[in-house]
Amino acid sequence: MPYTDLLPLLGLEKQDQELLDRVFIHRSYVNEHRDEDLRSNERLEFLGDAVLELISTEYLFRNFDSKDEGELTNWRSALVKGTTLAQVASDLNLGKYLKLSKGEEKSGGRDKDYLLANTVEALIGYVYLTGGYTKAQLFIHKFILVRLQDILENKLHIDSKSFFQEMAQDKLGITPHYNVLDESGPDHQKNFIMGVYLGDELVGEGKGQSKQSAEQNAARDALVKKGWIGSL
User: Annotated active-site positions, please?
Assistant: First the structure.
């Protein structure tokens, strides 16, 4: 598939077609096409993850001199976490380029947050190898670091579950608890819907590919509904 829409966004003077193709090759596709001598995007993802963390750290260090290490760490975590990167992938429409196994395709792999986030990291690895540090820096600034203001305004850098518990105990004297509302999918690809309760009242719901992530999303939903943080 030609990368007509994507190439102008990378900011590169040259391209490496074979390496760019590898950005979008999921391990499941390699396993289904063993006779084609393909390599998955996992090594590029490994590299891109490190490049993203370094450039994000440098940006925060240079631009927020008054902030301490703990606060900057929370900000960086919010910038590089899977949900943020999945949003970047969605904005860049990366899902359409993915090469997946038939089973992964059938299970909705093109829309899975963790696959999309991994693809963004692989793409960063590609930009770094093809264009060097400066091009990777420009790409990360343009599509990821620009999201910091929204993250801070909407308190996306906080631990929603811990913050909701603190607020509920402080304002209402109640400790929240969580229950599974629904779960679906095979054991290796579970999807959960968790509910967070104050007493017997269901005050928030959240989806996730683990109970922990679904609980975080449920807590955030409750924080928004209670008006304790701004809505997205």
Answer: 49, 121
